[in-house]
Specification:
single chain, mainly alpha, 3 helices
């Protein structure tokens, strides 16, 4: 297993207590880093895709008409 990047670690940390959608993850990372780390949406979704593939997190189903997906660790 490879070491986690800082951004991947922060995503996992953001998801530790509750499932969140993308915007919620971005805001939680800003909060827990004291505003010093801001992750771009494109970077976030790449990280989420990799974490799902590696089975570190899973995507929770949402309403069928919604584009939002919540992730949980």
């Amino acid at each position: 297993m490879k070491p986690l990047s800082e951004s991947t670690y922060l995503v996992l940390l953001a998801l530790y207590q509750e499932p969140l959608h993308g915007y919620g993850i971005i805001k939680m990372i800003e909060h827990i880093s004291g505003g010093t780390f801001i992750i771009a949406p494109g970077t976030l979704y790449g990280i989420l895709t990799n974490l799902v593939k590696q089975q570190y997190i899973e995507t929770l189903s949402e309403e069928k008409d919604s584009r939002k997906k919540r992730h949980t660790s």
